[in-house]
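Quick one, tokens below:
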């Protein structure tokens, strides 16, 4: 019988992601969808240390800051709309207090630089090939922070520009952390403000650039998140209300494909046990004073101890506290 759809094959990766491997995720909002799933399942991950970053040039700049552990100074900050901010960071780092803004930025750079140094996987999710350059400096910004549009020049990167910049970046990453494996993915989220045609040109540019980089570096692979949503799911019932971002059903489906590609049987077994604990933790009783609920708490306290005896490397401190009430 016909499947009535085109299923995207995700061949088994030659690299295995496990609970013993640290992974840093950087890039567009979609990288957080996958990274957050892994974090929820207790994998050791660091997600977007600069906040959401969409374009290849800014992602490269962020990674170079981590490689060099370049700390920011007050003169690196800007002030607009009563907020201090950095053009290298997402708005989640902005603050009404300059010292607090600087502290949050630098603490994250220090911790994420160390994390990247000891990571085995780096997941880079490219969102758009369009960039915005600040006219006053000529530098590409990661975020415009709602400044007037006339402050910026918009242009699209070429395939050649991306490849040349990332050849330099990946060589630097290899010196910084020789064991690092780089997984590229292109975000399935459409950048509609660039127009239908502009978005397609942008995604095509990213795909062509990644394809060239995969041919140059053996320590790299591609995960087809873009193709899974565009061709396999391909229906608006898999989108959020804005009709641009994938909804939870789509994210879960794509994460299932991700799991098939990167996890081995042992890791899948651990995930299954943790999912039971998470489901129990999210259970909300009508009455938490009943004997049955107290027995339920006791049962899962024992299960957590049993899981930790088998897998002592897991971090289940939050769940232990919850079931110790």
């Amino acid at each position: 019988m016909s499947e009535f759809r085109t299923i995207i094959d995700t061949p088994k990766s030659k690299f295995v992601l496990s609970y013993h491997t640290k992974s840093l995720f950087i890039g567009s909002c979609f990288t957080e969808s996958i990274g957050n799933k892994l974090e929820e399942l207790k994998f050791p991950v660091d997600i977007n240390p600069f906040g959401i970053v969409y374009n290849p040039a800014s992602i490269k700049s962020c990674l170079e800051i981590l490689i060099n552990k370049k700390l920011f100074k007050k003169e690196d900050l800007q002030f607009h709309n009563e907020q201090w901010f950095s053009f290298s960071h997402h708005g989640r780092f902005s603050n009404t207090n300059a010292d607090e803004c600087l502290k949050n930025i630098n603490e994250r750079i220090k911790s994420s630089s160390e994390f990247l140094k000891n990571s085995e996987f780096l997941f880079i999710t490219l969102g758009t090939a369009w960039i915005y350059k600040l006219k006053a400096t000529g530098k590409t910004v990661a975020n415009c922070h709602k400044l007037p549009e006339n402050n910026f020049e918009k242009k699209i990167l070429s395939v050649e520009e991306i490849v040349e910049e990332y050849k330099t970046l990946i060589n630097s990453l290899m010196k910084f952390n020789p064991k690092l494996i780089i997984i590229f993915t292109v975000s399935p989220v459409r950048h509609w403000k660039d127009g239908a045609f502009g978005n397609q040109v942008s995604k095509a540019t990213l795909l062509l650039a990644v394809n060239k980089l995969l041919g140059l570096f053996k320590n790299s692979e591609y995960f087809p998140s873009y193709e899974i949503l565009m061709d396999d799911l391909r229906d608006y019932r898999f989108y959020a209300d804005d009709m641009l971002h994938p909804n939870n059903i789509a994210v879960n489906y794509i994460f299932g494909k991700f799991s098939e590609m990167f996890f081995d049987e042992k890791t899948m077994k651990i995930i299954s046990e943790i999912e039971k604990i998470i489901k129990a933790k999210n259970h909300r009783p009508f009455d938490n004073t009943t004997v049955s609920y107290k027995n339920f708490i006791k049962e899962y306290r024992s299960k957590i101890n049993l899981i930790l005896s088998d897998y002592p490397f897991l971090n289940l401190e939050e769940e232990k506290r919850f079931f110790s009430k």
